[in-house]
Amino acid sequence: MFTRALTVFALVATFWVGSAVQATTIDFESETVGTYWGTPVGDIVGDVVLTAGNVDVSVENLFAYGTYHYNEAEIIDSAYFGSHAAMLLNISLEFDMTQMADARQLTLDFHDNGGMENVWVNANGLTPVSVSNLGMAGTDIAPGVTLSVTQTSVGTGVYAGSLVLTATDPAVSLETFRIGGQELQVDNIVITPEPGALALLALGAMAAVRRKTN
Hints:
The chain has helices at 2-20, 197-213; strands at 24-26, 36-38, 48-52, 55-60, 62-64, 67-69, 72-78, 83-89, 91-96, 103-112, 117-121, 129-131, 140-142, 145-155, 158-167, 176-181, 184-193. It has 214 residues and is an alpha+beta fold. The strands form three sheets. Strands 1, 2, 7, 8, 10, 13, 14, 15 and 17 form a nine-stranded antiparallel sheet that branches. Strand 11 (117-121) and strand 12 form a beta hairpin.
């Protein structure tokens, strides 16, 4: 009887863990081309404009040249990505991951048409990191979090590539991530959580079942 109950628990826990650790993907395909966020539709700074899974996406200021800017984001049919993307025009998007189970990694694709870009992780520092291209943002972007940017120059002052945020400290999670630009396309945001302690518990239960049945 005990072995049967343990088997049931292990299977349920394994299924729950498998479901719980699924990545959240934001690719804007569910959004209509021509949708605007920001000034054109009356969104104010901090308004949530999109929710995907347990992640809220809000519109935020862009910090560039020592001051704050706030304009618009538009869902476009991107020739570069061959799919829907968000075009950020003097605005930022913030991804709130605090409702996720210990977000550990975030990846994002971008096409930078020029101007300044912002990166801000876990609200580290008084202002976002403001750079003329994302490859200049540095690696130690916040305590316990590293940033890796791979990009290629595809024109004068134009870059295309991807970035990866990784929580390298087990005690630190990805809580908030802000990305902004003056002419910046973003797409294919994937946020991956940590399986957590229940994953270990499920593995332990399965090991116990194997010992009981051998």
